[in-house]
Write a structure and sequence with these properties.
Layout lengths: L2 E3 L9 H7 L8 E3 L7 H5 L6 H12 L5 H11 L13 E5 L2 E5 L10 H4 L2 H11 L5 E7 L3 H10 L5 E8 L5 H8 L6 E7 L2 H12 L2 H9 L2 E5 L5 H20 L9 E6 L4 H12 L3 E8 L4 H8 L1 E3 L20 H8 L4 H14 L1 E3 L2 H10 E5 L2 H15 L5 H17 L5 E5 L7 H9 L7 H12 L19 E4 L3 H8 L3
Parallel strand pairs: 4-14, 5-6, 5-8, 6-7, 7-15, 9-10, 9-14, 10-13
Antiparallel strand pairs: 1-2, 3-4, 11-12
Helix pairs in contact: 1-6, 3-4, 3-11, 11-12, 17-18, 17-19, 19-20
Length: about 500
């Protein structure tokens, strides 16, 4: 298995090199040159397998330069009972006859990012060993909230690695910020940036493309990699839980073998839903993907018009992990959908840079519309979905999952498609306790966020996630900050360049 650049500007590489580089040095993202194909029997025969066995099986299809022992060792280290104490690593909860919630937040930081970021450090360390990389690897992360803590938790105290996380100063919840700032580890740095997530992400991308800085890093025995979903090693592990969800429905006799189902995915950066698309391309029986957005509905508009336009106001919402206008993984998706035409990708992304928008060709757009539907939820609609889900099903959801639930019911109402559907639940409700409690009580609550957590527990009896328990009293270990134009200088300072 080899990996190619979406922009046709780099040689094909093996998985170890794709993972260690993070993104294509000249710009662009690595994608598999060929997607492994599975028949239905190969998939369904695994319906009783553990998450770990399923993960190892899928990884072996893509990491062909890794030995079986190396893959199984990484899987065992990542998905152990300490990091994921539930017997089912990704429990599936039935809401009604056709609707299921896939809980992806049972890892150490209460967010779905743990599913990938608990194993990425092991894949990266093994990749560095294979490539005989002697430099210390510097992991740069831009986060809209959850990726930061999940990456810090995964990489802290990993030998030969330093991790630096940038997050928007006023763009994350207090719990998210506290989770990041209280992280220990001798190799971790956390920096707040005066701007939004797109500012963080753009700054990190510019640093990756800065050849002069890369040269100075090399001279100081450093090299960059990424833990964002631009790194194939971050996207690959997310494919697994789509197979697991389908097989669990099969195991529970909720569906027949080969029956097509729908997936609804709340997404901002398009990585989570793209992983589902790769699962479909491998052979998973999927009828439709519903891409669920919040008020920053750039993806909804794109899926309806074929025009990707970021000329719009950026809105801060109660689902901050989706407050994104530039969806990095859309580039991979378009490359897959246009038949690996890197010329078109270069043309479109040049237009995005100069005009802040581009329009795809009709053939690609038609192909996308066959499999994808874009829906969005206003903040008010997301709040109503939180309350309605609790009232109707006695089940608590966070604001991101609420966007997914609301979008699914909109899709059903408009399309008449009542296929069984799985909604990705991307965060534990206690991570966004203020929005959840205010939604349940239909009023603004002025209390401190930790008092809100206490009230929410008292009101619902829902268990507080272990990753949030006691967080209020933990010592803050990181106080760094910078402006939008000061990211490079801050990096140089932290690395003593």
């Amino acid at each position: 298995m080899e990996y190619m650049s979406t922009r046709g500007n780099y040689k094909q590489v093996n998985s170890a090199e794709a993972i260690s580089l993070g993104m294509v040095p000249e710009g662009g993202l690595f994608v598999p040159a060929e997607i492994p194909k599975l028949n239905l029997e190969e998939i369904t025969v695994r319906k009783n397998e553990s998450y770990q066995k399923l993960a190892a099986w899928i990884f072996k299809k893509y990491l062909t330069d890794f030995s079986e022992d190396e893959i199984e060792s990484a899987v065992k280290a990542a998905y152990n009972d300490q990091s994921f104490p539930e017997a089912e690593k990704t429990p599936l909860v039935k809401l009604d006859q056709n609707t299921y919630i896939l809980e992806l937040w049972h890892g150490p930081t209460a967010a779905f990012k743990d599913m990938a970021l608990q194993i990425l450090p092991h894949l990266l360390a093994e990749s560095a060993k294979k490539l005989q990389i002697g430099n210390e690897i510097v992991i740069l992360v831009a986060t809209s909230g959850d990726t930061g803590k999940a990456a810090l938790e995964g990489f802290k105290d990993v030998e030969g690695v330093k991790i630096i996380v940038f997050y928007p100063e006023a763009g994350v919840s207090r719990v998210q910020e506290d989770q990041m700032k209280t992280t220990g580890g001798k190799n971790t740095e956390v920096v707040s940036l005066k701007g939004n997530f797109d500012d963080c992400q753009n700054a990190v991308k510019e640093i990756f493309a800065d050849k002069e800085l890369k040269q100075r890093l090399q001279e100081n025995n450093y090299q960059f990699s990424s833990a964002n979903s631009i790194n194939w090693g971050r996207l690959l592990p997310q494919i697994v839980y789509y197979f697991k969800a389908y097989l669990k429905l099969l195991q529970d006799k909720e569906i027949e073998a080969g029956e097509k189902i729908n997936f609804t995915v709340p997404t901002g950066n398009f990585g989570n839903i793209l992983a589902g698309y790769y699962a479909y391309r491998m052979g998973l029986p999927v009828n439709k993907f519903i891409c669920a957005s919040n008020d920053n509905k750039v993806l909804t508009d794109f899926l309806e018009t074929g025009i990707y336009d970021i000329n719009r106001d950026f809105k801060k919402t109660i689902s901050p992990s989706m407050d994104i206008l530039i969806s990095s993984n859309l580039e991979r998706f378009l490359f897959e959908m246009n038949g690996h035409d890197s010329g078109k990708i270069n043309e479109w992304y040049q237009k995005l840079q100069t005009n802040k928008k581009f329009k795809i060709d009709g053939q690609t757009f038609t192909k996308i519309r066959e499999m994808f539907s874009g829906k969005f939820s206003s903040e008010d609609e997301a709040r109503k979905a939180i309350k309605k889900t609790y009232q109707n099903y006695n089940y608590l959801i966070d604001p991101h999952t609420a966007v997914g639930v609301d979008s699914l019911f909109k899709y059903r109402s408009e399309s008449g498609d009542e296929s069984k559907a799985v909604v990705d639940s991307t965060a534990n409700p206690y991570k966004f306790s203020r929005a959840v409690l205010e939604s349940l009580k239909d009023k603004e609550i002025k209390k401190d966020e930790y008092r809100i957590i206490e009230e929410l527990e008292e009101m619902t009896a829902a268990k507080i996630h272990r990753g949030l328990a006691g967080l209020e009293n933990m010592e803050s270990k990181h106080q760094e900050s910078c402006g939008q134009d000061g990211v490079k200088e801050k990096l140089e300072e932290l690395l003593n360049l």
